[in-house]
Amino acid sequence: MEGNKKGICILGSTGSIGTQTLDVIRANQDKFQVQVLVAGSNYELLYKQAVEFEPIAVVINSEEGYNKIHDPLFDKGIKVYQGKQAICDVVTFPSVDVVLTAMVGAAGLDPTIAAIKSKKVIALANKETLVVGGHLIAELLKQYPTPIIPVDSEHSAIFQCLVGEGNNELEKVILTASGGPFRGKTRDELQGVTLKQALKHPNWSMGAKITIDSATMMNKGLELIEAKWLFSCPSEKLEVIVHPQSIIHSLVQFTDGSMKAQMGLPDMKLPIQYALAYPNRISNDFPRFNFMDYPQLNFEQPDLNTFKNLQLAYDAIEASNGMACVLNAANEVTVDAFLKEKIGFLEIGDSNEEIMGQFAGAKANNFDDLFALDQEVRMATSQFIKTKV
Ligand SMILES: NC(=O)C1=CN([C@@H]2O[C@H](COP(=O)(O)OP(=O)(O)OC[C@H]3O[C@@H](n4cnc5c(N)ncnc54)[C@H](OP(=O)(O)O)[C@@H]3O)[C@@H](O)[C@H]2O)C=CC1
Ligand SMILES: CC(=O)[C@@H](O)[C@H](O)COP(=O)(O)O
Ligand SMILES: [Mn+2]
């Protein structure tokens, strides 16, 4: 947008990342101006956000939400739209400079494609976008070059470690994992774990889907695939190390053996602010890390047998170009079923494995194939789950 302020569109403004993004913007109103807010169904919060931040438009996915907020916001001069196509349209508004993608799941892919085609800077929180369509997004970016600034804490850490390194070759990219609430547990011990236990992440307060992904370590699997595409990093250079304190957010190692890490307290506002302000840094009053509060930082190997989703992600990276889409779609359905208490915790990974087997060799050479594959896998996974309950 004109002037010194960056115009921001937030996809998923009512969620964990979305609300923290608005916290960052609230504290930096001389630098950022909200142009567009997009939400799924939480119309009450979206309404409040719109009244406070005065965007030019909001989009809500649900029809009920649209009917509730259209007239009162229209009266305040704020346009209100509904539905998937509207989300893809608003990201292209000329006054939008940065699109922060914080919708959950593969639903974030389509608007991100529209934003890339419109050459917007992408502040990427929605990791599923690159998991599902990384190979096609990489091609799209050749045609429509635009910066993708990671928001995911590990990828923000890696990105920050790479600033100033030019073409210096990487030997390894090391993603840290908290290990989640069930770190160190055996498969037997995981048999009867509850939804409440799985939703209790040791270090981060996040949306329900990613919190379950952290508990199954699918989150780290998705992040491996995300890292592959963000940093053009082959799978043999990608490693995961369990670091229960989530203080070191990730590391890189160069071919001279030197390692760089980015560290700090677990607080998503920092990577969000970094992505919005990039290439600048903004001073803030976020709580600071104190070494004396953490006299020990620990590291462990991940247990790929118990947390099989992480192994499945490694497998998907090596398989055909549709397999990451298969894994993601299956996982979205199984996690949703677990959140609705229709299946047990271990059935998430077991079902994902079964579905990957059913779709062995799946390919997606263009976006139409990809969306069709995504739908097909969702149906197959729902069917499979029905046979189990
Ligand atoms: N939370 C975190 O700390 C981190 C999150 N991420 C990633 O960021 C993304 C968002 O995570 P998080 O904020 O935790 O998730 P939440 O569940 O808290 O929020 C999801 C947001 O997406 C919106 N939404 C969902 N479906 C649709 C749809 N079809 N159309 C429009 N909006 C939709 C929701 O709207 P509504 O609530 O109104 O229905 C909500 O605003 C995920 O991809 C996650 O993996 C990455 C790193 C850290
Ligand atoms: C905050 C963030 O980036 C999450 O993706 C976090 O990393 C989840 O923690 P796990 O390491 O437990 O997956
Ligand atoms: Mn992360």
From TrEMBL:
Top EC class for this record: oxidoreductase
UniProt-listed Enzyme Commission number(s): 1.1.1.267
InterPro entries assigned to the protein according to its UniProt record, in alphabetical order: DXP_reductoisomerase (IPR003821), DXP_reductoisomerase_C (IPR013644), DXP_reductoisomerase_N (IPR013512), DXPR_C (IPR026877), DXPR_C_sf (IPR036169), NAD(P)-bd_dom_sf (IPR036291)
SUPFAM superfamilies cross-referenced by the UniProt entry: 1-deoxy-D-xylulose-5-phosphate reductoisomerase, C-terminal domain, Glyceraldehyde-3-phosphate dehydrogenase-like, C-terminal domain, NAD(P)-binding Rossmann-fold domains
Listed transmembrane segments: none
Entry binding sites for Mn(2+): 152, 154, 223
Residue intervals of the DXP reductoisomerase C-terminal domain: 263-379
Catalysed reaction equations from the record: 2-C-methyl-D-erythritol 4-phosphate + NADP(+) = 1-deoxy-D-xylulose 5-phosphate + NADPH + H(+)
GO molecular function: 1-deoxy-D-xylulose-5-phosphate reductoisomerase activity; isomerase activity; manganese ion binding; NADPH binding
One of the GO biological process terms: isopentenyl diphosphate biosynthetic process, methylerythritol 4-phosphate pathway involved in terpenoid biosynthetic process
Superkingdom: Bacteria
Domain spans labelled 1-deoxy-D-xylulose 5-phosphate reductoisomerase N-terminal: 8-134
Keyword set includes Ubl conjugation: no
PANTHER family registered for this protein in UniProt: 1-DEOXY-D-XYLULOSE 5-PHOSPHATE REDUCTOISOMERASE (PTHR30525), 1-DEOXY-D-XYLULOSE 5-PHOSPHATE REDUCTOISOMERASE, CHLOROPLASTIC (PTHR30525:SF0)
Function: Catalyzes the NADPH-dependent rearrangement and reduction of 1-deoxy-D-xylulose-5-phosphate (DXP) to 2-C-methyl-D-erythritol 4-phosphate (MEP).
Stated family: Belongs to the DXR family.
Identification of the protein by name: 1-deoxy-D-xylulose 5-phosphate reductoisomerase
Organism: Luteibaculum oceani
Record lineage: Bacteria, Pseudomonadati, Bacteroidota, Flavobacteriia, Flavobacteriales
